[in-house]
């Protein structure tokens, strides 16, 4: 289908755009439908970056409705509730308009390439949590450790959904906490994800302190009874 000058969609017939990434078959049209039915989105197209390689990843482009603005991170987080994890684009870019061919079809060759890294001034990781997290990203993404800054995003540096799953696992092994995968999509920037890890660590420490205080307040008989119940 294509957008006509009067703003209506013209259906041109089905073209099989099914793709495969790491053995999983994906229909880009399903992702595009999820995007165009999201609030504020007028048009969307999904492509594959680095096709045919182990680093292949989905890239989505969205155009806002007239008078609206889009938050790419919020859109991608919303897709987590509607699509399987492997169908959530690694990058979502907002455009003023989709480039079209003379025939009115999306000109995929003119879609902007995803920019790796961050255009911000580099800020080195500032505390132990950010440094540990940067070390994990370095191991997963094969990005020089010294180039990973506090304001860099996991997906901006080339991360994909498979690496996101591995990241959650390594965070669990390193920090001994379990994060929901959606938190990574909601907080892909290193400093923000590190802050969430810090919150989880603080909550876990407080829970442990409360438990220790509760145990300290038990009598010897109560402790013996609890231990016998556990045996």
From TrEMBL:
<dbReference type="GO" id="GO:0017000">
    <property type="term" value="P:antibiotic biosynthetic process"/>
</dbReference>
<dbReference type="InterPro" id="IPR020806">
    <property type="entry name" value="PKS_PP-bd"/>
</dbReference>
<dbReference type="GO" id="GO:0043041">
    <property type="term" value="P:amino acid activation for nonribosomal peptide biosynthetic process"/>
</dbReference>
<protein>
    <submittedName>
        <fullName>Acyl carrier protein</fullName>
    </submittedName>
</protein>
<dbReference type="GO" id="GO:0005737">
    <property type="term" value="C:cytoplasm"/>
</dbReference>
<keyword id="KW-0597">Phosphoprotein</keyword>
<dbReference type="InterPro" id="IPR006162">
    <property type="entry name" value="Ppantetheine_attach_site"/>
</dbReference>
<feature type="domain" description="Carrier">
    <location>
        <begin position="124"/>
        <end position="201"/>
    </location>
</feature>
<dbReference type="Pfam" id="PF00550">
    <property type="entry name" value="PP-binding"/>
</dbReference>
<dbReference type="InterPro" id="IPR045851">
    <property type="entry name" value="AMP-bd_C_sf"/>
</dbReference>
<dbReference type="GO" id="GO:0044550">
    <property type="term" value="P:secondary metabolite biosynthetic process"/>
</dbReference>
<dbReference type="Pfam" id="PF13193">
    <property type="entry name" value="AMP-binding_C"/>
</dbReference>
<dbReference type="InterPro" id="IPR036736">
    <property type="entry name" value="ACP-like_sf"/>
</dbReference>
<comment type="similarity">
    <text>Belongs to the ATP-dependent AMP-binding enzyme family.</text>
</comment>
<dbReference type="InterPro" id="IPR025110">
    <property type="entry name" value="AMP-bd_C"/>
</dbReference>
<dbReference type="InterPro" id="IPR009081">
    <property type="entry name" value="PP-bd_ACP"/>
</dbReference>
<dbReference type="GO" id="GO:0031177">
    <property type="term" value="F:phosphopantetheine binding"/>
</dbReference>
<keyword id="KW-0596">Phosphopantetheine</keyword>
């Amino acid at each position: 289908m294509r957008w006509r000058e009067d703003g209506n969609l013209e259906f041109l017939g089905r073209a099989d755009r099914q793709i495969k990434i790491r053995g999983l078959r994906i229909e880009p049209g399903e992702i595009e439908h999820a995007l165009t039915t999201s609030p504020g989105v007028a048009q969307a197209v999904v492509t594959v970056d680095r096709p045919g390689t182990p680093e292949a990843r989905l890239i989505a482009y969205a155009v806002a409705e007239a008078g609206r603005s889009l938050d790419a991170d919020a859109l991608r987080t919303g897709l987590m509730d509607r699509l399987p994890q492997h169908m959530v684009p690694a990058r979502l870019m907002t455009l003023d308009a989709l480039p079209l061919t003379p025939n009115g079809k999306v000109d995929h060759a003119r879609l902007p390439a995803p920019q790796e890294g961050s255009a911000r001034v580099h800020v080195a990781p500032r505390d132990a949590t950010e440094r540990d997290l940067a070390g994990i990203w370095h191991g997963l993404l094969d990005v020089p450790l010294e180039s990973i800054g506090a304001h860099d995003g996991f997906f901006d540096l080339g991360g994909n959904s498979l690496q996101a799953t591995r990241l959650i696992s390594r965070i669990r092994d390193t920090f001994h906490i379990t994060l929901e995968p959606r938190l990574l999509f909601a907080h892909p920037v290193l400093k923000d994800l590190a802050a969430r890890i810090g919150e989880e660590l603080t909550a876990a420490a407080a829970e442990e302190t409360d438990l220790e205080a509760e145990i300290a307040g038990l009598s010897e008989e109560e402790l013996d009874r609890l231990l016998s119940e556990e045996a």
